[in-house]
């Protein structure tokens, strides 16, 4: 397991710690993240949380391609087995505020986590992209989650352009995806500073506010996600053809089925 956590002065820092894999998530990590968020629900010592990736080169690059094929899928377009669906705090009914600290790449399956945090702190050097279409996969849950945080045209472009483009930290800040730009290497400190403020306030008021903000957009998000399984089933290439596309693109920066790294030309916006 490569998820670690420590709590200091009411702030839990959750670290994805597989820098050699660009913090791609395997099945054990997915289970550990879900258990961690659930554990925070009953821990009065946790009043705010920060989630980040180790190593500085990536926040997260989605599910590890080496284990993605181990997940059997239902023989139905109306259901899907997706281990990343439970890695976020809201999926585990956690209303402690969670802030994401992004350094380096955040792509594909990373959006399951990012879309369930209250806000993001990043650096200008951080980058956001969604490789699904490049490799013959539908960006469904990822695009739906990010559509709650980004202007329509921005999330549509990111989801459709695949590995051909990355959104810079500066552009993410300009479009509202990122709420604060920190200096290089400073995203975690900036996120912790915010988290300490939240942890100092009355817990009931903070969590009630978190719940209120999410209630405002929950209906649209729930309705959209209900369509995801059959959109994925209809639109994804076969695993064999996906694997061929991965093999044909050298220089991939990550290993995530829901978030591999870029191949070919990349333009920073």
Task: Describe, in plain words, how this protein is organized in 3D.
InterPro entries: ClpP/crotonase-like_dom_sf (IPR029045), Enoyl-CoA_hydra/iso (IPR001753). Belongs to the enoyl-CoA hydratase/isomerase family. Residues 253-269 have a biased composition (Gly residues). It holds the Pfam family ECH_1. This is Enoyl-CoA hydratase/isomerase family protein. With 269 residues, the chain is of the alpha/beta class. The chain has one domain (3-200, 227-268): 2-enoyl-CoA Hydratase, Chain A, domain 1, CATH 3.90.226.10. Helices cover 38% and strands 19% of the residues. The protein is built from ten helices and 13 strands. The chain has helices at residues 27-41, 65-68, 110-114, 141-146, 152-161, 169-174, 187-200, 203-226, 228-235, 239-247; strands spanning 3-8, 11-16, 48-53, 58-60, 98-102, 105-107, 119-123, 127-129, 165-168, 180-182, 255-256, 259-260, 267-268. The strands form three sheets. A six-stranded mixed sheet has the order 1-2-3-5-7-10, with helices on both faces. A five-stranded mixed sheet has the order 4-6-8-9-13. Strand 1 (3-8) and strand 2 (11-16) form a beta hairpin. The longest helix is centred in the C-terminal third of the chain and has 24 residues, at 203-226. The protein is globular, with a radius of gyration of 17 Å. Residues 251-268 have low confidence and may be disordered.
